[in-house]
Design the sequence.
């Protein structure tokens, strides 16, 4: 049986594509890094893949807002292709900058045409870029990426990651629909590890099908035990990190 194929869609300023490709390869997929210009020139490339990932970084320098230019490019040039990919059952994962992109393209949260977005990612409450490890709580529901995960750690690195909704009613609708599948957890002293002030401690959400998922933490940065700051050289260097499960779940879902 052929390995599932994962496209890592990059743009100028993307800087996590190599790590993300490694994670998918480690999980049993065949990954290919594809520049957005190559996809706009040959949209039929999408037909060769079962998984699409928009990785982290600072696409186009985040000059207008995080992920905005990349999202505009995808919406104006590739909307039909990407929506068709999603509608035929393809998996879509957006990590950090990729999560920002997914929210702005409508690939993750679909609303009525020309309506304001239900949710967005604002600047961190601290006004500072945050780079640290956080505890997470998963409630997978239908999200195929999080199956079998409950409490785990991943690193974050962002300045615009504060999840907010247009209204309390929008938040309640997403919660009732089981789409708020990943939240920041607590440390051993009971203190929240929410790094940005996100509403409801939300760190990630999925679409109603569970096949489109965006999150602020970086699972590709915790694929092996040696990537964890508490690793002391005495643990098995090949032991999997918690992030690997997210990629393995994606591969399993399309195998």
Sequence:
């Amino acid at each position: 049986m052929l390995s599932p194929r994962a496209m890592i869609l990059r743009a100028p300023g993307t800087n996590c594509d190599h790590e993300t490709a490694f994670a998918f390869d480690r999980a049993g997929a065949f990954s290919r890094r594809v520049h957005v210009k190559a996809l706009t020139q040959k949209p039929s490339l999408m037909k060769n893949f079962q998984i699409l990932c928009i990785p982290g970084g600072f696409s186009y320098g985040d000059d207008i807002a995080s992920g905005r230019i990349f999202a505009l490019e995808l919406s104006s040039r590739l909307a039909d292709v990407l929506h068709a990919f999603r509608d035929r059952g393809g998996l879509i994962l957006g990590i950090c900058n990729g999560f920002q992109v997914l929210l702005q393209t409508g690939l993750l949260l679909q609303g009525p045409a020309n309506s304001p977005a239900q949710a967005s990612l604002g600047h961190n409450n601290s006004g500072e870029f945050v780079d640290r490890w956080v505890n997470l709580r998963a409630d997978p529901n239908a999200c195929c990426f999080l199956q079998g995960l409950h409490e785990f750690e991943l690193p974050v690195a962002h300045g615009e990651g504060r999840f907010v909704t247009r209204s309390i009613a929008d938040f309640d609708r997403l919660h009732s629909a089981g789409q708020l599948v990943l939240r920041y957890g607590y440390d051993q002293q009971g203190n929240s590890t929410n790094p940005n002030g996100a509403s409801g401690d939300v760190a990630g959400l999925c679409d109603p099908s569970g096949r489109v998922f965006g999150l602020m933490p970086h699972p590709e940065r915790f694929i092996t035990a040696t990537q964890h700051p508490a690793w002391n050289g005495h643990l098995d260097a090949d032991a999997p990190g918690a992030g690997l499960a997210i990629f393995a779940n994606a591969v399993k879902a399309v195998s």
